[in-house]
Structures are given as structure tokens and as C-alpha cells.
Structure to design on (433 residues):
């Protein structure tokens, strides 16, 4: 462990209750920051993500000539470069953020100059070849280090392409759309499984025109983006931890205000419903084509049932799978996850780490190349958890620890700040002990 590594002690809780409002959605914050920095004029965003990943995007965009001004807690103003970035010889540091690296590559591929993107040790292990293929097909040149960052983009005039993503990935889709935005002709991205559509909605909000087919999205270029004012909805991937925590305490009730309820992201609510939780949307609004609502979860008095997650469901739930697996022992019938091989190339090998930590807490679990089987009706005990420098693992096992017997120690708890610095304080606030 590094000298900065922090531990967090999680004590068991008797119940979860209360109401919350969460920091801005990370996926939307990334896109608003990037598009606002690329647009003409000054955009203003409230409830912008407090995570380190989105700070990495803002920092890169500043290096490329955009101006970022903090207006108050969660409020920023971004003055854009009007479609032409300032060349930089310095490395663009994406930190831990795969979103920053993959999406920014698409934006820079059509710009003149050479740009080098770097990341931390975890990001430098993540596969970047998947953006190389479409961008090189468009005419850019990318230099990678054995398929990974550091990544150098030799930008140039691009040509429009029709591209089918081999692996469902909103980041790859966005990368190609951002390159297509600046390219003469119509660029089409096709995907077998529909991924989150924040990029399409954000591009439209900034004035771009796109056409959606049944399994495709087409953008014609070049187009100019114009500044907007927007409130970022609360992050549903962050909400997942609190909703899962409430769901494992029979009869618990939790309300989350101003939550992003984009249909391509809200699959988690369906799965919690399949497990037996009662979910009600108390209020619904639409801002910049993104749905925002107030959600109430009431846990079933009889406890949670069981669910099988595979195919399109697994792709749509990729960020939420670790916490669902972590609470699976508390269900009556267990949770079975397949078609989730992508979990092995996230910030860590999430399948291996979930299995390792569940076993440390005394659970029986079977690991597969593309998923896990976690039987139900198991009692977990406190243990020392290896976060593997992965924010979602640290948070998922903090939730599992709430119903364990005895205290649980999360090693490397500081990684939660990558996506959600307020996480532990909010968890403490909701836990009745």
C-alpha cells in the first residue's frame, strides 16, 4: 500500500433511512465539461460532479485553451475555444479517468497537432486499442504503448466512417461522434446493445444535430457547438450504493432527490424491483433532454429474492454490478452475473476482487471468466477489504459491511474520492446504529 493509503472502519448498522441529494452525474459532467470547453461562448453548470475524474477532464480542457472559473460549491463557468484547441507540448494528464482519455481522443483527432495523453498506473493498464481502430479508419494516427496509454494522437483532417463497435462502449461511441462532429460528411456509429446516450443528448443540448436509427447514431459535420446553462442531475451510479444499502434492511426506506433517471442508466431500478424492492418516482422533470426525478425505495419486509443478470442487462449495469454482487449474500436466492467480461478491464479486475473480498467476509462464491454466482442466505462477517485502488470496490464492500457481523476495514478507502468524495459521510448519515 502507498504511504497515502487510508483505512476506513465500517461498523454494522441496524437500518438505513433518510433522504439524500447527490453530487452531479459523473458521465454527464464529463460531457458538459468537454463540450462546453469546445463550444463558442461561456457555459454555466450547477451541481457539477465533485469527483477527481471530472476534475481531470476540466484540467485537460484548460490546457487546451478553455477557461474554467469556479462560481461556488458545484457551480462552474466554462468558456470554450470555439472549435479550435490551443496546441500544447505538455502531456494531458487524464488521471484515473478512462472517460477523459477515450472521449478527448475523439475531440483531438480532428485537430491540427500532436497530443500526448497520459494517466495513472490503473488507467495505463486499461485497453485503448478500441479507440485506435475507428480513429485511424477516419485518418488520424495514434501511437500507443502495447495497446495502452501513454497515447499520442497525430491529428489531421478526417473522413466520415460507418463504424460498428465490437464491444458495447459509450466511451468509444462518444469518441467517434466527437471526431465526426468536426468531419465533412455523415459519420455513423452502430452498436448491438444500446449504451448510455448522455453524449447524444448533450451534443443536442449544445446545438448539434444527430439522427438516431434503431441501432445506430449518425452525426454530420462539421458543426459548431454553442454554450448552454445546465444543472447536472444527481449521479445514479453513486445512488446505487445507497439504494443497495437500503434494500438489504427489511422495511428500510430511502428518498433520493434530483436524481438522473435517464432510461439508458436507470436499469438498476428495474433490477432492484426484480429483487423485490418497491420503487416510486415521486416527481419527474426534464432538463436538457435528461430526466431528473425524486425516487423512493422501500425494502421488502420479507427480504430480497434473486435475479439473473446477463446479455444487454449486464452491459447496461456494468458500473453497478460490483455492489449488486456484494449484497447478493443477503438475498434469499442469490445473484447470478454473466456476459460481464468487461468488468475485468475496469479500474481493476472487478470480478476477481469482488470474489476475493466476498470470500474474505466468509461468503461462498463461484467466479467465471465473464461473471459470478453468489448464492443467497449467507451471513457475512467483518473482514479487511482490499479495494485494489478501485473506487467502486471500496464503496460496494462498505455497503456489504453494514449487515455483516463485526467491523469491516476498507483498505485504500481514499479511492472513493475518484468518483464520490462525500460517500463515507453520507453513508454514516443514513446508517442507524
Amino acid at each position: 500500500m502507498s504511504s497515502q493509503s487510508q483505512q476506513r472502519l465500517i461498523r454494522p448498522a441496524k437500518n438505513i433511512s433518510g433522504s439524500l441529494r447527490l453530487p452531479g452525474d459523473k458521465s454527464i459532467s464529463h460531457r458538459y465539461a468537454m463540450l462546453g470547453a469546445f463550444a463558442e461562448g461561456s457555459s454555466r453548470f450547477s451541481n457539477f460532479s465533485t469527483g477527481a475524474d471530472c476534475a481531470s477532464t476540466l484540467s485537460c480542457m484548460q490546457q487546451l485553451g478553455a477557461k474554467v472559473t469556479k462560481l461556488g460549491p458545484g457551480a462552474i463557468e466554462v468558456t470554450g475555444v470555439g472549435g479550435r484547441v490551443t496546441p500544447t507540448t505538455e502531456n494531458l494528464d487524464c488521471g484515473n479517468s478512462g472517460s477523459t482519455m477515450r472521449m478527448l481522443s475523439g475531440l483531438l483527432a480532428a485537430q491540427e497537432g500532436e497530443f500526448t495523453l497520459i494517466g495513472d498506473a490503473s488507467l495505463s493498464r486499461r485497453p485503448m486499442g478500441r479507440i485506435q481502430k475507428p480513429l485511424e479508419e477516419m485518418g488520424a494516427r495514434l501511437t500507443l504503448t502495447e495497446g495502452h496509454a501513454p497515447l499520442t494522437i497525430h491529428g489531421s483532417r478526417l473522413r466520415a466512417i460507418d463504424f460498428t463497435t465490437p464491444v458495447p462502449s459509450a466511451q468509444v461511441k462518444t469518441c467517434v461522434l466527437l471526431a465526426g462532429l468536426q468531419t465533412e460528411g455523415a459519420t455513423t456509429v452502430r452498436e448491438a446493445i444500446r449504451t448510455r446516450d448522455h453524449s447524444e443528448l448533450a451534443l443536442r443540448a449544445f446545438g448539434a444535430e444527430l439522427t438516431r436509427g434503431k441501432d445506430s447514431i449518425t452525426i454530420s459535420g462539421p458543426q459548431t457547438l454553442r454554450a448552454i446553462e445546465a444543472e447536472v442531475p444527481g449521479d445514479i451510479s453513486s445512488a446505487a450504493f445507497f439504494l443497495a444499502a437500503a434494500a438489504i434492511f427489511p422495511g428500510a426506506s430511502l428518498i433520493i432527490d434530483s436524481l438522473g433517471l435517464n432510461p439508458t442508466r436507470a436499469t438498476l431500478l428495474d433490477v432492484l424491483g426484480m429483487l423485490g424492492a418497491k420503487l416510486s418516482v415521486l416527481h419527474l422533470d426534464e432538463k436538457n433532454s435528461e430526466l431528473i426525478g425524486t425516487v423512493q425505495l422501500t425494502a421488502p419486509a420479507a427480504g430480497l429474492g434473486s435475479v439473473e443478470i446477463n446479455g444487454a442487462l449486464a452491459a447496461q449495469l456494468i458500473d453497478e454490478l460490483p455492489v449488486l454482487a456484494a449484497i447478493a449474500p443477503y438475498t434469499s436466492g442469490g445473484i447470478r452475473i454473466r456476459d460481464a467480461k468487461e468488468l475485468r478491464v475496469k479500474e481493476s479486475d472487478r470480478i476477481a476482487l469482488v470474489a476475493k473480498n466476498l470470500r474474505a467476509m466468509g461468503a461462498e462464491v463461484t467466479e467465471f471468466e465473464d461473471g459470478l454466482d453468489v448464492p443467497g442466505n449467507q451471513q457475512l462477517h467483518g473482514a479487511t477489504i482490499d479495494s485494489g485502488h478501485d473506487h467502486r470496490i471500496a464503496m460496494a464492500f462498505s455497503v456489504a459491511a453494514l449487515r455483516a457481523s463485526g467491523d469491516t476495514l476498507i483498505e485504500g478507502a481514499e479511492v472513493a474520492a475518484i468518483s464520490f468524495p462525500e460517500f463515507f459521510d453520507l453513508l454514516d448519515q443514513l446508517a442507524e446504529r
Q: What stands out?
A: The chain has two domains: 7-24+234-432, 26-230. The radius of gyration is 21 Å. The CA atoms of residues 236 and 266 lie 7 Å apart. The chain has 13 helices and 24 strands.
